[in-house]
Amino acid sequence: MDGIIDNDLILARVRALIAESVRQPAAAIPLDARVDGGELGIDSLGLIKLMVRIEEAFDITMPDLAAPGAAPFGSVREVAALVARQVAARQAGGGQ
Amino acid sequence: MTRVAHTRAEREANLRSAADQREHERQAVAAHYEHSPEIFSLVLDSRLAYATGVYEHAGEDLETAQARKYARIAAKLDIRPGQRVLDVGCGWGSNLLYLAQHTEGVFQGITLSAQQREEALRRARAWGVADRVQIDVCHVEDLNLRPESFDAVLFSGSIVHMHNRPAVHQMVGEVLKPGGRVLISDCYFPVQPRGDRDSAATEYIFVEALGYCRLIGLAEELQLMERAGLDILHVEDLTRHYAQTLAHWIDNVRKHRRTIDAMAPGFAAVLQQYMTVARMSFARRTALEYMILATKGAPTVDPGAWPIAQKGGRS
Ligand SMILES: C[S@@+](CC[C@H](N)C(=O)[O-])C[C@H]1O[C@@H](n2cnc3c(N)ncnc32)[C@H](O)[C@@H]1O
């Protein structure tokens, strides 16, 4: 994804990717729903696939799911905020 | 031995005839390895090991860890001039060619993938060892070898793809000469189930990404080896090392995502996804990686004499 994108756009795009992965319309995905808690019906494979889709879509690296003490992903809004930080870091020149 | 199927894929395999299962493996397993070696060369070390490395330190790179692993396998197999070595599931020749370059043995490899055979032979020629290397596209159960004709047999990351384990071990027991060694490096389930073996993630890695995998318990494998007349010499756990290897592979997939997808659309995601499932399984020890060394008759190597680093410096 090129150019500067703002946080609302990122939130909408992340929500759309989540909606796609559970085959629901985006409107059916509450922004406060936990992504990894079973609330949206995303199992462990679904979560991995979603993270890869997000990495592809935003050209970023998401946190390592297998790291010891890896933090859970939280809500749709929190995942989008995480993505926004990674995108900002990349656009700041650098990296991941 | 009671045959408890651990996964859905294994239950399905049990319903097929042996010949049908063999044919299934020929097709389903080969599909993954038939992808361009160019793709794998972006992800793996320079010798294209598609198996765990051995890390001494957390910060080590993939190339160093794989080099240590080749040397470790070479030391364990202890191949003398003129000895004959069979590499079952030789991939692009990682271990086989290392051993050909570092010993004066004579090598026969088999793989299910014509692409892998071609790449391995190309490397054998480039590295000047082609006269001691033969590689065939052949299913392990179709091998027709003379009894007691090999000094060493190697399975690195390959036996997991083979459903009919009793037949495989029987073959090894027969083709090894007295004093011959067999080394297996692969993935096992803990005996007490941890995690869901019928989960979508398990099905994804064992079937969708890799075609067919059958993980059994370590003790089951060891017992099959013993029944085939082999003595177990040494077993070591490499689970943590595989988790670390996978982290390096995953980073390489990320780095080359676009190039990989240009060559095989969607394959970068398949790699990253299955490797992440595998990395999490090893990190949580819901799957375990072991390296097993066994011998037929009196051993020519002595694991009791191998050094183990002393803690605390002074001895
Ligand atoms: C994960 S790769 C490992 C390659 C190599 N041994 C290494 O360590 O780099 C698995 C290999 O096993 C081979 N293989 C799997 N099932 C096989 C079978 N039934 N007969 C022969 N080769 C097989 C595949 O073709 C592939 O080359």
Automatic annotation (TrEMBL), chain A:
Keywords: Phosphopantetheine, Phosphoprotein. Residues 8-87 form the Carrier domain. PROSITE patterns: CARRIER. Pfam families: PP-binding. GO terms for molecular function: phosphopantetheine binding. The keyword Phosphoprotein applies. Transmembrane segments: none annotated. The keyword Cytoplasm does not apply. InterPro entries: ACP-like_sf (IPR036736), PKS_PP-bd (IPR020806), PP-bd_ACP (IPR009081). This is Phosphopantetheine attachment site. It comes from Nannocystis exedens.
TrEMBL record, chain B:
Residues 7-29 have a biased composition (Basic and acidic residues). It comes from the Bacteria. Residues 39-301 form the Polyketide synthase-like methyltransferase domain. The keyword tRNA processing does not apply. Keywords: Lipid metabolism, Methyltransferase, S-adenosyl-L-methionine, Transferase. Residues 1-29 are annotated as: Disordered. One of its GO terms (biological process) is lipid biosynthetic process. One of its GO terms (molecular function) is methyltransferase activity. Belongs to the CFA/CMAS family. PANTHER family: CYCLOPROPANE-FATTY-ACYL-PHOSPHOLIPID SYNTHASE, FATTY ACID C-METHYL TRANSFERASE. This is Cyclopropane-fatty-acyl-phospholipid synthase.
